[in-house]
Amino acid sequence: MIKTILVPSLGTEADAAAFAAAAAVARAFGAHIDAVHVRLDPVEVAVGMTPDTSAATMIEGVVDQLERDAQQRQEQAHQAFAQFCARENLAIVAGASAAKDSASAEWHVEIGREPAWMARYGVAADLIVAARGGPEDATARTILETVLIETGRPLLIPVAGVAPAIPPQRVAIAWKATPQAARAVASALPFLVQARETVLLSIDEGDAEDEDNADRIGRYLAAHGISAAAQRLKPGSEGGAATLLAAARERADLLVMGGYGHGRVYEWVFGGFTKLALAEAQLPILIAH
């Protein structure tokens, strides 16, 4: 059951997609949205930009400008949040317990580094909804990486400009017998039990054991009342990841997948399928690590 949803409020155009998806989930499950905006610490940033601590006047000027920028960004983010709540008719309450099983929202402001604060809030959320941002949006990208790796919670990534179907009518599961994919499937159960159609998509790598594993996850889903068809895909010339994403786009409103990463978290070094899906998928993704 989904009762608490974390949404990073960045004060950018990417917020609209995240808020819309979060509202759809909140209405479907009577959940509470925690919208979190993080202001950079201007002193910390200024000192990092100006390592010569003797340049006190320069640091003071930088701090003042950073503080003005942070205040403007916070005001923009809060205005977008308030307009979102009014548009979606969401009650603004203090804490999920005050919502009484109806969709609601709450605004939070913290000071520091955005990824770290999102990880702190994320560990206490049932679901995190965050937009991927534009190709040059390093902040949004780093938040996705951080909450996926460090919270242990599922992450829903919407598509900008596309209203999400919640509950989804058709769900595709990118299946491979790994802990990440298994956690993603378990996290998706609230959506899967309401879907009209579920399909297990896997890449045919010529291993009979993979087919057996797909049968097992099919039986697991059946035990939860979910009937899932299985489809093994031959990888095309563009590669297995692109083949699977294209099939999911044709078959589903939502893709459920495991997130696979290696190396340092903050260097955008996820494995090929995860990296491609986070960057280019043209349908909403529910992902777990």
Describe the protein's architecture and organization.
The chain has 289 residues and is of the alpha/beta class. The protein folds into 2 domains: 154 residues, Rossmann fold (3-Layer(aba) Sandwich); 119 residues, 3-Layer(aba) Sandwich (Rossmann fold), CATH 3.40.50.620. 45% of the residues lie in helices and 19% in strands. It has 9 helices and 11 strands. It has an 11-stranded mixed sheet with strand order 3-4-2-1-5-6-11-10-7-8-9, with helices on both faces. α8 crosses α9.
Layout of helices and strands, plus pairs?
Layout: E1 4-8, H1 15-29, E2 32-39, H2 42-49, H3 56-88, E3 91-92, E4 104-111, H4 114-122, E5 127-129, H5 138-150, E6 155-157, E7 170-174, H6 179-192, E8 197-203, H7 208-223, E9 228-233, H8 240-251, E10 254-258, H9 272-280, E11 285-288
Parallel strand pairs: 1-2, 1-5, 2-4, 3-4, 5-6, 7-8, 7-10, 8-9, 10-11
Antiparallel strand pairs: 6-11
Helix pairs in contact: 1-3, 2-3, 4-5, 8-9
